[in-house]
Write a structure and sequence with these properties.
- 38% of the residues lie in helices and 19% in strands.
- It is α/β, with parallel strands linked by helices.
- Strand 2, helix 4 and strand 3 form a beta-alpha-beta unit.
- Helix 2 crosses helix 5.
- The longest helix is centred in the first third of the chain and has 17 residues.
- The radius of gyration is 17 Å and the shape is globular.
Length: 224
């Protein structure tokens, strides 16, 4: 059976959102103060115990879905500890049910990534590598602030450091993300189309099989 084809993203936006920089200014000037949900507090406490016990450089796979990418990263970077984070209980349960041997340098956490990032920064965590693979693009123009770079927690994400890789099948999403990174940090985040050698996620496989152009942006932010 052939995999279901995915439609190209349709948006009423044709370039970087004209309110992106004003939105960033607002978020840079005002600390995001929404209370952290109780289940996210508990999830972070559990994750912190695992991270401390591992004693290894840290990789985040934020929005990990059912964990294919997390397992791939754990095998690729055996000297790191890889945390797959997703808000969906169902997706995390599927990730945990996968009996694929990934070694002992991996864990999955059911948490809202925005709350988790805030707690990680408050705990002075330094993320060595951070993967953001095919986030929901929220392509309607009115949904800018639902995108990672338009959300109030975006400055927190960048402060976690260090190496970032983000992938999408919507070039405008990465153009905005790169523009936001440069505006906040002065760092150039190059964008390149690519053909995956190994599918990191089911979305990547579906989009590529459907003929979509895939894009990725890689950049590093180092703390002083």
């Amino acid at each position: 059976m052939k995999p279901a084809r995915s439609r190209e993203i349709i948006s009423n936006q044709i370039g970087v959102h004209e309110k992106l920089f004003a939105t960033l200014d607002k978020h840079l000037q005002n600390v995001y103060q929404k209370p952290v949900a109780r289940y996210n507090l508990h999830a972070f406490t559990q994750a912190a115990e695992l991270v401390e016990a591992a004693g290894k450089p840290l990789i985040f796979d934020s929005g990990c879905g059912t964990g294919e990418s997390t397992r791939f990263l754990a095998k690729k970077y055996p000297s790191h500890f890889v945390l797959g984070i997703d808000k969906s209980q169902l997706r995390i349960e599927k990730a945990l049910a996968d009996e694929t041997d990934s070694g002992e340098n991996i864990a999955f956490v059911r948490a809202d990534i925005f709350d988790f990032w805030r707690q990680a920064l408050a705990a002075s965590w330094q993320v060595d590598k951070h993967y953001l693979l095919y986030p929901n693009p929220w392509p309607k123009k009115k949904y800018l602030q639902r995108r990672y770079h338009g959300h109030p927690v975006f400055p927190v994400l960048l402060k976690l450091g260090s190496y970032f890789e983000i992938r999408s099948n919507w070039e405008i999403y990465l153009q905005e993300f790169a523009a936001a990174v440069k505006y906040v940090c002065g760092v150039e985040a190059a964008i390149n189309g690519f053909h995956p050698v190994h599918y990191l996620t089911n979305f990547e496989k579906k989009y590529h099989s459907s003929g979509h152009t895939l894009y990725k942006s890689c950049f590093s932010i180092h703390k002083d």
